Amino acid sequence: MGAGLALAVGTGLTLMGTAGTAQAADVNVAKNAGFESGLTNWSCSGGSGAAVSSPVHSGASALKATPAGQDNAKCSQSVAVKPNSTYSLSAWVQGSYVYLGASGTGTTDVSTWTPGGSSWTKLTTSFTTGANTTSVTVYTHGWYGQAAYYADDVNVFGPDGGGGTDPDPVVPPVPAAPTVGAVTSSSVALSWGAVSGATGYNVYRDGARVQSVSGTSATVTGLSADTSYQFQVTATNTAGESAKSAAVTGRTGPTGGNPGNPAVPKHALTGYWQNFNNGATVQKLRDVQSQYDIIAVSFADSTTTPGQIVFNLDPAVGYASVADFKADVAAKKAAGKSVIISVGGEKGNVTINSDASATAFANSAYALMQEYGFSGVDIDLEHGINSTYLTKALRQLSQKAGSSLVLTMAPQTIDMQNTGTEYFKTALAVKDILTVVNMQYYNSGSMLGCDGKVYSQGSVDFLTALACIQLEGGLDASQVGLGVPASTRGAGSGYVDPSIVKNALDCLARGTNCGSFKPSKTYPGLRGAMTWSTNWDATAGNAWSNAVGPHVHNLP
Hints:
Elements lengths: L1 H9 L16 E2 L14 E2 L4 E4 L9 E4 L9 E6 L5 E18 L6 E19 L6 E7 L7 E10 L20 E5 L4 E4 L8 E6 L2 E6 L3 E4 L7 E10 L2 E2 L6 E4 L16 E7 L19 E5 L2 E2 L6 E2 L11 H13 L3 E8 L9 H18 L3 E6 L5 H15 L4 E4 L12 H8 L6 E5 L6 E2 L5 E2 L4 H13 L7 E6 L12 H13 L17 E5 L1 H6 L3 H11 L3
Parallel strand pairs: 18-19, 18-29, 19-22, 22-23, 23-24, 24-25, 25-28, 28-29
Antiparallel strand pairs: 1-9, 2-5, 3-4, 4-9, 5-8, 6-7, 6-8, 6-9, 10-11, 11-14, 12-13, 12-15, 15-16, 15-17, 20-21, 26-27
Helix pairs in contact: 3-4, 4-5, 6-7, 7-9
Pfam family, one: CBM_4_9
Organism: Streptomyces kurssanovii
GO molecular function: hydrolase activity
């Protein structure tokens, strides 16, 4: 029995085939089954599909298809089959309510589905072709009203119907030597030409691999100032890795590539600038209202390296070039404003949960400061943080950036209910380098104030009683700000009229204009207020910054 099994495996025999008997050389008749060539051979309804680099089950790409309205995001392919033959159909899927099926079989069409989840699940079924069937449509789709789903590694295994199968990959050829781009005192940007058949690339520094990327560019960070390095790249796919390219020399710049961070004023207004178009007024940085002292560029992007961040300027905001954006950063700084890079947001997720990811964050954040002139970072991680390693990351960044680093945070209300939460622990652990915590007093349910009473969002009491937790929990008054939406469209809930924000500021700083809650003492050093976003503020005619800005700047 064991010898017979070994023979069957070794000769490629299978029990799935014509009339259910063993057939040699059964193949996967689906083409571009892993979406490594984008959507080639596939058709998706209503333009609902796209090839993405993350998440993937294997290789470098997977299908992402998004249902919308009456479209269930059906993606299909016609495969060549043999009549009177049996085929196994399988795919790896991720997401809610994902379907896999086959139609036009000439016998009984089949489908299977899974309610899905956040991890990859394998769907499997089989079908038998009719006496005259030479092609079958295989498909995936999601469900109406559900979020996007993902699919990868589609397998239609059975006799070759004449269309063949995707050829086995071969090791890609050697890339040309990379080209050195922008350099800072701690980073070197590289780019190179695409290689046919490659699904990824490895970057080598002085002979040691330092990065793996799916595209044709990378920025190597964590380098010493004014130092020369040798860089090479290789091309990879499932068949293996090419030889290294010819080497190119890149030299980092001298120390001091980001001088002159302006000081944050005693009382400051913070605004988030949107690096995307979501229906709010589109702004360039030069258009940001003059009342804002700290401008948080939203947002940095994560990479496949845990903790590492990059910044991708969205064409939707209208800049002709990255250089134009950098010039705007410099101009704002020259006007005394702090321009910082925000990390996180509602949809952003940067994982910092190890020493390696902490270092990756610090190195990449500092590289962005050097490249774009950012004065610091804003931590707006809304999907959970690890205080131990985030603290390490911020400490390392502070050591690189020096005393002029601007460090802000924008936790949700639940994150600052007591000093035992991960966010509050982080704020206290970096208190000596922390500029301000602008908690988001919106998109929140009712919360406890420092007096133990429950307060609902949208009132003076909600702002003052929750701020009191931070003020009495160990933060300095200069490290506390009130974060609110700039307009009713700026958040799902929690918008308050600027007059309420001004009353809350007066209550905390002066002891006047309080609601039913009145703090036991005043905090004249209160830093100020924050809003999401400068764009929504502009949409509403700058009503928020025109009202709250002067009030903040005139606090005692």
